Amino acid sequence: MIELGANRYGKAAIRLVRVTRGAHGHRLRDLTVAIALEGAFEAAHTDGDNSMVIATDTMKNTAYVFAKNHLDGSIEHYGQALAEHFLAAPQVDTATVNIRGHHWQPIDVAGRPAPDAFVRGGEGTRVATVTATRSGVTVEAGVEDLIVMKTTRSAFSGFPRDAYTTLTETDDRLMATKITAIWRYGAPDLDADATFAAVRASLLEVFADHDSASVQTSIWIMARAILERHQEIEEIRMVLPNLHHWLVDLAPFGLTNDREIYTPTTEPHGLIEATVRRGGA
Amino acid sequence: MIELGANRYGKAAIRLVRVTRGAHGHRLRDLTVAIALEGAFEAAHTDGDNSMVIATDTMKNTAYVFAKNHLDGSIEHYGQALAEHFLAAPQVDTATVNIRGHHWQPIDVAGRPAPDAFVRGGEGTRVATVTATRSGVTVEAGVEDLIVMKTTRSAFSGFPRDAYTTLTETDDRLMATKITAIWRYGAPDLDADATFAAVRASLLEVFADHDSASVQTSIWIMARAILERHQEIEEIRMVLPNLHHWLVDLAPFGLTNDREIYTPTTEPHGLIEATVRRGGA
Amino acid sequence: MIELGANRYGKAAIRLVRVTRGAHGHRLRDLTVAIALEGAFEAAHTDGDNSMVIATDTMKNTAYVFAKNHLDGSIEHYGQALAEHFLAAPQVDTATVNIRGHHWQPIDVAGRPAPDAFVRGGEGTRVATVTATRSGVTVEAGVEDLIVMKTTRSAFSGFPRDAYTTLTETDDRLMATKITAIWRYGAPDLDADATFAAVRASLLEVFADHDSASVQTSIWIMARAILERHQEIEEIRMVLPNLHHWLVDLAPFGLTNDREIYTPTTEPHGLIEATVRRGGA
Amino acid sequence: MIELGANRYGKAAIRLVRVTRGAHGHRLRDLTVAIALEGAFEAAHTDGDNSMVIATDTMKNTAYVFAKNHLDGSIEHYGQALAEHFLAAPQVDTATVNIRGHHWQPIDVAGRPAPDAFVRGGEGTRVATVTATRSGVTVEAGVEDLIVMKTTRSAFSGFPRDAYTTLTETDDRLMATKITAIWRYGAPDLDADATFAAVRASLLEVFADHDSASVQTSIWIMARAILERHQEIEEIRMVLPNLHHWLVDLAPFGLTNDREIYTPTTEPHGLIEATVRRGGA
Hints:
Four copies of one chain form a homotetramer. By secondary structure, chain A is of the alpha+beta class. The first copy, chain A, folds into two domains: about 10-135, Roll (Urate Oxidase); about 170-280, Urate Oxidase (Roll). Chain A has five helices and twelve strands. The first copy, chain A, has helices spanning about 40-45, 55-70, 75-85, 190-210, 215-230, and strands at about 1-20, 25-40, 90-100, 105-110, 110-120, 125-135, 135-150, 175-185, 235-240, 245, 260-265, 270-280. In chain A, the strands form three sheets. In chain A, strands 1-2-3-6-7-8-9-12 form an eight-stranded antiparallel sheet. A two-stranded antiparallel ribbon of chain A has the order 4-5. In chain A, strands 10-11 form a two-stranded antiparallel sheet. In chain A, a hairpin with a 2-residue loop joins strand 1 and strand 2. Chain A is globular. The two termini of chain A are about 45 Å apart. The interface between A and B is large, with 77 and 77 residues.
């Protein structure tokens, strides 16, 4: 017997910009939204019966309408409004809304921010995922593609050596990575904009100001600090590629290279992932 | 109390080419390998103790050595050899090896395949993932980025309409998608090359030769056919974006457009995912 | 005094698909079109006067209308119709239409090509550029992203050595490249589809079947062969990155590596460009 | 007769990082370098004679050595040292060095910049191209991928209407673009770092603070301002895609949309290019 297992569907890569035209300047929001639904969709698969299938085109329209009516606050707030809207359909068990927020900042004109002109920038992309079920709402927030480097205070030694080991131990290497960090809030009601900014600043600060014995221990140190500083967070998951920078051998040219000239590489790269959370008792 | 949750680490994007120089021509293998380990790595995180941490550089070296010694057969066979090697380390509970195989075919010279010159091509990328634990070995195979289109025999109608619905029903639309299909074998011992080729051919054939009422039902029809035709497969997971092609409105130019001129788009796109499996009893 | 120099404008990345529904099967065309105009557009720049500026949105519409009316033959023919249309505006001196053709092939069903289902593939992307001026029409055709590899018959030696040279000479290396080849026809009237197929086959065949002393000499050998075999071509320009494949050092593991296991790399890469043409007298 | 036309070769995508470890903090340089040579390389093509061919691997080594010895100042200075080095080989007529500089800024720790930890960011990528010939050295500088948006003060009207025109005129649209601006200095001796910063600031400021009648006129206004403010620049070339943002039609949902909710798009896009220069007399 052949049966349907886990399934979900939705609309991804919905691009939208909202311009709020205030008396003292414009506010610019630039989002990429993805919506996914799970629920009683078996007949859609096995019988070609679309009577329960909210069209993904309808999801897109809804995202635009809600951008007009529910995007005055945080992207988490907007995501929750969207998720709860879709959950109101009886065939939906789980509605997940993922939002990526692209950062624009006002351009300086004669030392002042322009009211109506912006440059895209910022480091890393803000992300939020709201999941609504009959049991309640879960809010995750985070940052992706936050590229950082420590030029010292990073070591890697004491690892086991076998027949395939050639790496030399080092007590001072470059550590470069592209941080993905996603954290889950204990409750959906919070000042998500302020919390995001604070957590992002913590991440960067702890990254900068710790001694690393490995990427693994760097994740632990950053994640533990986030949980200690930000009580509203229950759990944080981090994914850190190790973007190796190799010292160039300048000896053939009669030169020393004391941690000065490096080749950055992306292939291959280490890839280190861990979740850190508040434990029981 | 703050504690370490799920974690894993490894080396990704290991690129390797093997050339086997036979009397009647060369065989070319071009792979991207990723290795990930789970196990007793808590001290690496919480204490900066690397004594159990197999260096990811060692993993890379091992991938190269095993490419010389264990890559005569399928990529699944090579992946299993690698995964079992890493599982032999007592601190490792789970070793996962993911391999993407890039396709090259001999160039035609005067109607014959060149023995030593190749053109990169093929449709889609072959993938294999071998997971080794103390309980045994799991082998998944599949294809990614297999881009296909049906120019008729695809409909979408009968879906519910709410205040946000503007999509018109259609009984004849283009259906274009980029198939990701990953299937799990019941047992690791099989002719993985022949099976892959047969499943891929089945996927394409059923995609071409069915009437689609929705992407959901297309997934079901393809997946069920795969399970019916290929008894060695226990489960198949498919991820299909709906890469919309919109009819261009040519009425302003005094022209009809009866399913002839379309605009392909990628943003936004539908995204449909489902697993189909052999059920109990 | 500050003045306007060379300038041009247009619409790029116009995506279009045309399905021709014949009795015995569908024909699928999938193109990306870019249109650029040069001419009497100074006032648009210096005075903000748009009275001569054909809107790029109009260009897009025109591309769709002409896809219905002028895309029965080659993309070169379609490009020429578009270019001549825009040249008919008196303010236009030069109209350039660049077209990239994406390849789809019918899916096999029970050994026969499906009439209405296709898989995207093919090696390399076909390109055509038609430039129309008051003096006439120029047609260039070519191929991009044609990735090829020779597993032997490629050497590189005899190069000069200075204080910065460490590369060893080799008489048997891998040569991998991603060919861009663009050729100019002597006259726009030709069977562009058949010629493209023949030239592409020649390129591959000569790539496969020559001994290479360098990428430079491979370009010369291929380009000369194209000009010798295809009299309708006046000139060919080739751009070949040298996608290095480095032999992995397996000696630390007690293994030899006689041209067997390689690491493919893309950063850095050699980059070799040359034009070869029919010369005077 | 078949002959060799224009040709050049070199090494591209040389990635390098230099860390200068000062008493009060580290300086981090992160560059991608491309080197290309033209000259007496005909025999390399036509005869497979490599005796004049400086290996591209040697170029890469040279880039690393010069990064140690000649990268204390601007990237333009480093590029000039490299270009003049290669020009010293008698077979070289033209040596071109292109450098892209990736921006990193110190991470804030408790309100102060960390001495040894950085985050990648900045808006746009700085580029420099130095071309050395027997006649002298030319230095171009610029910025790529500088993404900006005006939320008002941008119009497009008064364009001609033909049978294919459907675009409505607008006196208030979004204007979004990704600026590529490359300018040529009159002489290579200048404070290239300070000048780059000043020109980049001018570009942004003028972009923000002008009324646009079209992308064409925006280029002219920005370019003219650059030439007026920065006498060391002889010529500036700008390439601006018009990244359309379309107003979403919310009327079907009973809502007005007065320049508030937009869909950003990238396909198709306008593409506007112009050079502005100091003229004769």
